[in-house]
Amino acid sequence: MRLFWKICAISIQRQLAYRAAAMAGLLTNLFFGLLRAAVLVALYGSRTVVTGISIEGAITYTGITQGIIGFLSLFSWYELMSTVYSGAIASDLVKPLNYYRFWMAQDFGRALAQLILRGLPIMVIYAVAFNITTPTSITQGLVILASMLLAWNISFSWRFLLNLSSFWVPNAMGILRFGFVLSWFLSGFLMPIRYFPDWLQKICYLTPFPHLINTIVEIYLGVISGTELLRIIMLQVGWALGLMVLSNLVLRAGIRRLVISGG
């Protein structure tokens, strides 16, 4: 466990070293967040509430989703694939840490750094610029934090699985890009899932993707509570564990197939 946290700390330091890139990412995320907020305000028109989400909640939604882009690495993550094609994976496999946990430690450090550098500043700016929704109790805040950790776990395992396709195909970039686009739509990143038709909502919840973003948003906005909140958190836990097990099974199959330098 000590090695896991050491790798995590090194990853955080690496992220903090690129402050200019972090600032550029922050400004880009903020710009598109404000643009999306303006679009939603226009769509609401004279209405103050749509499917249980108030206009303030809709604006808050844009801030949350833009703020966790870096935390969940929603747009790209190709590092593992690159090591497979370059052969650098050989040295990673002999490290004194399970391969899945090795990448998990690196990604957790990256996620924490991105949350500090981009996620939190965006929410602070939103709080200053708009009348946004905020958590009403410490308990709600702790549940949001737990949901975010579970969402990161699901996101990491999904990205890990996508990258593992490089063990079987000569160029997995297309598979990874398709996987990312699919997750944007079904997670509620482009639009809250509550806005979708009922049949499409049901399809979304047959996948793990709503638990990347939509669950966090609905807990934050307080539109779910009681037994429904418990049910949704348990679904998050189930998807996190299921994808973790699947990732390790696919990894074993991939390693058996892997050939490096003819060996």
Structure description:
The chain is built from twelve helices and two strands. Helix 1 (2-16) crosses helix 7 (99-129). Helix content is 73%, strand content 2%. The protein has helices at 2-16, 19-44, 55-67, 69-72, 79-86, 89-93, 99-129, 138-164, 173-187, 198-204, 214-221, 226-257; strands spanning 49-50, 53-54. Strands 1-2 form a two-stranded antiparallel ribbon. It has one domain (2-257). With 263 residues, the protein is mostly helical.
Shape field: globular
Number of helices: 12
Q: Largest sheet, described in full?
A: 2 strands, antiparallel
The spatial strand order of the largest sheet comes to 1-2
In short:
With 263 residues, the protein is an all-alpha fold. It has twelve helices and two strands, in the order ααββαααααααααα. The chain is globular, with a radius of gyration of 19 Å.
Output the keywords.
263 residues; 12 helices; mainly alpha; two-stranded antiparallel ribbon
List the helices and strands and how they pair.
Layout (H helix, E strand, L loop, with lengths): L1 H15 L2 H26 L4 E2 L2 E2 H13 L1 H4 L6 H8 L2 H5 L5 H31 L8 H27 L8 H15 L10 H7 L9 H8 L4 H32 L6
Antiparallel strand pairs: 1-2
Helix pairs in contact: 1-7, 2-3, 2-7, 3-7, 8-11, 8-12
